[in-house]
Amino acid sequence: MAEPLFNRMALIGLGLIGSSLGHAIKRANLASHVAGSARSAKTLETALKIGFVDTVHETPEEAVKEADLVILCVPVGICGPLCARISPYLKQGAIVSDVGSVKTAVIEACAPHIPPGVHFVPGHPMAGTEFSGPESGFAELFDNRWCMLTPLPDGDPGATDKMVRFWQGCGANVETMTAQHHDIVAAVTSHLPHLIAFNIVGTADDLETVTEREVIKYAAGGFRDFTRIAASDPVMWRDVFLNNKQAVLEVLERFNADLERLTQAIREDDGEVLYDQFKRTRHIRRGIIDEEKS
Amino acid sequence: MAEPLFNRMALIGLGLIGSSLGHAIKRANLASHVAGSARSAKTLETALKIGFVDTVHETPEEAVKEADLVILCVPVGICGPLCARISPYLKQGAIVSDVGSVKTAVIEACAPHIPPGVHFVPGHPMAGTEFSGPESGFAELFDNRWCMLTPLPDGDPGATDKMVRFWQGCGANVETMTAQHHDIVAAVTSHLPHLIAFNIVGTADDLETVTEREVIKYAAGGFRDFTRIAASDPVMWRDVFLNNKQAVLEVLERFNADLERLTQAIREDDGEVLYDQFKRTRHIRRGIIDEEKS
């Protein structure tokens, strides 16, 4: 087996992403030792029992000592405070990365706490399921999924390159881009869809004329497609919206204007506007299906 | 093999639903003879070649002659004019049904054209795929899906009962309800999700800052879940929205009010409102998963 990419590494946070990373690292032998840290004792115990980490540590400060790579696998809202805590314990030459769905806000919150001689390479693996916790992880989560890296303008190219190889080792395809561009791409392809899904499921649940039982029973009519992503982790998503506010509000405004146009067409019996809109969305689906085949 | 439920039946319209019905009828031997009619000569040729009908007819008038059951498998907007055309050719004692996603408007358009002695039993199988045309049908489309029947208040119970058995023979679970209730249930579980999906795919496609290529590439982040239903047949969906206007506008109003509340929370950094909303939608997903297991 080839030499591991990293000697010691630390995973801070052992939920769906942290535990999946542990499994993926073991699968490809990407690190000699994986140290894990999480807030709850039960999570640490589970992680050790499943075996996707080699050691567990009650505090992130303990976990990051001597680590060559530290990955923050926590909701984006606590990345900043976490960096402030671990900052004094980071090894010279180490790489710090994260898995947050928002990049500009995470960089603003974390970068000031990264000591000189430590490299910060923010990342976002676009992968997930509707399940949470240390038992929900699996090695294949990142296979053939995209991981976006948003290196800082003055970042170390060697560190970025190592993170590209790391994520490829986890099975992912890697793309680098600026944090600003990442945030608008994520707002469109991920954050807006989640907000709409959370919203529509709530709307359906609130109606007086249709029971929850009926909504569940007849979900296959289209509603079901929305419920998977509306079952995602509420803390993670709260933090995403609080931290990608500008980009999300921008795409929401476009979404609302478009929806108003369709609503107006329904109100005014304008079949042509409806038909034209419904027809043009088919090629996007075909593009996605083709992409998956390739 | 048991005696077929119907001697001769006619399918008017041989797209996804019409062709799937043909296959399902053959599978369970529900009719001795299936006559098919469609607007295009190519569709008729394909239908005969695949063999899900026994005979094809250039006009619906020809197809319905001597039929004991006629099912209109066409967009809801043309059900009324079609009934007017076939009306003089319907056999005494025959049943006329449809598969439209809207029921009140279809009843208003069709009922006046149903001659005395012919029974009208409106129906809506909640099943579909993103594909269209006579080649897209398959016998299993209705298996374990719901078919809603909305018999008229003064309708013949025997005819309704026969349609229940017919749809059960096609593999579906059958529920009867009023047309009014059907339309609001369908607006929530199917029409609103489709409208939102059509809309969000359009919004994503229109942004200047994010390319279509990027939307397709990163669709797995959540966007993908919306594209399946946004690839549905545009004519069918145009007619649904034009014909279930009141119920759709009603649920849209609720959807917009809810979305405005979430938008406001994002604007004002109100994490509590976001968290509460995101948390409560999980149990609906669980309900759907449990339903599918049962």
List keywords for this structure.
homodimer, 294 residues, alpha/beta, Rossmann fold, 6-phosphogluconate dehydrogenase C-terminal fold, six-stranded parallel β-sheet
Q: Can you describe this structure in just a few lines?
A:
Two copies of one chain form a homodimer. With about 290 residues, chain A is an alpha/beta fold.
Structure description:
The structure is a homodimer of 294-residue chains. With 294 residues, the first copy, chain A, is an alpha/beta fold. Chain A folds into two domains: 6-177, 3-Layer(aba) Sandwich (Rossmann fold); 181-293, 6-phosphogluconate dehydrogenase C-terminal like domain (6-phosphogluconate dehydrogenase C-terminal fold). Chain A contains 13 helices and nine strands. Chain A has helices at residues 16-28, 41-50, 60-64, 79-86, 104-110, 157-169, 179-206, 212-217, 224-227, 234-243, 245-267, 271-280, 282-293, and strands at 6-12, 31-37, 55-57, 69-72, 95-98, 119-120, 123-125, 146-149, 173-176. In chain A, the strands form two sheets. Chain A has a six-stranded parallel beta sheet. A three-stranded mixed beta sheet of chain A has the order 7-8-9, covered by helices on one side. In chain A, helix 4 packs parallel to helix 5 (104-110) and helix 7 packs across helix 11 (245-267). The first copy, chain A, is globular, with a radius of gyration of 21 Å. Chain A starts with 5 loop residues before the first strand and ends with a helix. The model of chain A has no long low-confidence stretch (mean pLDDT 94). Chains A and B meet through helix 7, helix 8, helix 9, helix 10 and helix 11 of A and helix 7, helix 8, helix 9, helix 10 and helix 11 of B.
